[in-house]
Amino acid sequence: MSDETSTEERGNARKIRDGLVVSDSMDKTIVVAVNQRVRHPRYFKTVQRTKKLYCHDEAGDAKVGDRVRVQETRPMSKTKRWRLLEILERAR
Predict the structure, then answer these.
(1) 7-59, pLDDT tens digit by residue?
(2) How far apart are CA 29 and CA 60, in angstroms?
(3) Is 3 a member of any domain?
(4) C-beta atoms surrounding 76 within 10 Å
(5) Parent domain of 64
(6) What does DSSP say about strands 67-72 and 46-56: parallel, antiparallel, or unpaired?
């Protein structure tokens, strides 16, 4: 086994989500709102569920309104379990 093991070979790939930055007021931390469309079990109507993820942003370059991609990581604090991968689109 080589030292360069990818996440696919480990068996448990880390989750990746796209979302919108709703807060950047903390130091090195952003809050990202991730929308998920699910079908209601009884009424079969599509509803949106929103989850707020606390993400580590080392450089602090993500601003409110940016569309970003985040990846699951080890716990960095009590609530922070995600880290910023890339900024997909800047806010206008």
Answers:
(1) 557 778 999 999 999 999 999 999 999 999 999 999 999 999 999 999 999 99
(2) 8
(3) no
(4) 15
(5) 16-89
(6) unpaired
Distances (CA, A) of 19 to 4, 10, 35, 82, 89: 29, 26, 7, 12, 10
Averaged pLDDT, 61-74: 97
Number of structural domains in the chain: 1
Residue 6 lies in a domain: no
CATH number, position 51: 2.40.50.140
As a whole number of angstroms, the longest Cα–Cα distance in the chain is: 51
Say if CB 92 and CB 43 are below 8 A apart: no
Q: Please give the model's pTM, rounded to 2 decimal places.
A: 0.83
